[in-house]
Design brief:
Distance between the termini: 43 Å
Structural class: alpha/beta
Strand order of the largest sheet: 2-3-4-1-5
CATH topology of the largest domain: Rossmann fold
Strand content: 5-15%
Number of strands: 5
CATH architecture of the largest domain: 3-Layer(aba) Sandwich
Helix content: 40-55%
Length: about 250
């Protein structure tokens, strides 16, 4: 593992990194690597490691406050954030951190795909890709991330695809109702994106077996546009999912 990370990071760490990979496993593996390399002490008070399903504006303010504080020890200050989804307003707060780096502080943002981030963030951070997962045992992930909901999105997507249009609309209404206080929140958008990704995987496999089917091509295009819309501030999750319910 150490040799692998050596290929990713230079001898002297940059201030800000974007790491593509599994937010949970890579965050914890990176933490272990920095300890083994001697960059940080295991119990240093100047290490912040946070894992999120969805990273909100309130979460970003917490990170900004940490970033503005003075270090307690004489060593490096390390902030590791693993997030499956990031709200665009939260990204703007992170951008200010990246643009105004604190002395001896290093910032790591681990996301599944860097392309969902603002261009201004990607242009100011060093991006590396970490293709491997599972370097950290599941029990250790749960210790850091006990509230992770193991929702079977694949099963839900399979059921959704074979429903009638009316039942799909009802399904969307139920999803929104269960998150009635979260219509504009990162959590609901994270759930919607996970759901769309699984629907896309199923439709894509159907398309591979029947690549002349124009309907599959159309649906794949709608799924891609829907995911892009979900990353826009103010976009209605309900309207986006209802549209999919009618076109699939």
């Amino acid at each position: 593992m150490i040799d692998f990370f050596k290929n990713l990071f230079p001898e002297n760490l940059y201030h800000s990194y974007i790491v593509e990979g599994d937010p949970q496993a890579v965050s914890l593996s990176l933490h272990q690597y920095l300890i083994q390399k001697g960059e940080i002490q295991e119990n240093s008070p100047d290490i912040l490691i946070e894992l999120y399903d969805a990273f909100s504006i309130d979460d970003s303010r917490k990170i900004k406050e940490w970033h503005s504080e003075m270090g307690i020890s004489a060593g490096k200050r390390i902030c590791i954030i693993g997030a499956k989804f990031i709200n665009h307003d939260a990204e703007r707060t992170l951008l200010k951190i990246i643009e105004e780096p604190a002395f001896n502080t290093h910032f790591f943002l681990i996301v599944p795909n860097s392309l969902v981030l603002l261009d201004t963030i990607r242009s100011r951070a060093h991006t590396v890709k970490f293709p491997h997962t599972g370097l950290v045992e599941e029990k250790n992930i749960k210790e850091f991330y006990p509230d992770d909901k193991q929702t079977d999105f694949k099963k839900i997507a399979q059921e959704f695809i074979v429903m009638s249009p009316k039942n799909r609309i009802d399904f969307v209404a139920k999803m929104i109702k269960e998150n009635k206080d979260e219509e504009s929140s990162s959590i609901l958008r994270y759930v919607a994106i996970k759901f769309i990704n699984e629907v896309e995987n199923i439709i894509f496999m159907k398309f591979k077996n029947d690549n002349k089917n124009l309907n599959y091509q159309f649906v794949l295009g709608e799924l891609e546009k829907s995911r892009d819309f979900l990353n826009l501030p103010g976009a209605s999750v309900k309207m986006i999912l209802e549209n999919l319910a009618l076109v699939i």
